Structure prediction request, 224 residues.
Amino acid sequence: MTEATCPVGVEGDWRSRAFDLVRGIAAYDGCPLVGGLARVIAQHPEALIDNAFNHKQVACKTWARDQLYGSLGGKFDRLAILGGWYGVLAAMLLDDPRFEIGAIESIDIDPSVAAVAETLNAGANGRFKAVTGDMYRLDYAALAAGLIVNTSCEHIADLRGWLDLLPKGTNVLLQSNDYFGEPSHISCVESADAFERLARLATIKFSGALPMKNYTRFMLIGTV
Prediction:
């Protein structure tokens, strides 16, 4: 684990204690993901890693991981996660022994998140890469991903229009929600059925809902 000095003061004291706690948990259980969280706390004090790894985010991503394994199995030569943010879902997939993944590319339009994602996944032995890019401008044929993941479909104005950019037959995992009160959620859905109608996938291997405290998360796994 790389040693680092956290900022001083009240915020620094909180981060210093969080860093020591998480680093201790990593030493106890040997979990690379927890070790990555400790590195992020130490090296990226500006990162909102507490938000990215809160219980709701983890619950939604654990649900995605489990249903993905149940629907498509665990072997992927290459997969891409769009809107990958700090790379938490990638870290969770790479940490799960059920999965055999050759490479994960985490793509986000925000250039400030790539360094954090790389730090979190520094223990992935070269299987992780964070890229700054616009999902509407990617060459998906060249990307050659066996699975495309997008867990932020509520932010996509024209979901079907974006899906039409993907090569036919591409496996996808999509999530949206019914949290209409958030201004940035411009494409929420009211139900899993509504999500299915919006996405119009060629095949659906999983369709379901995960009730949360203030909203319900919906997920589809299938092919375009």
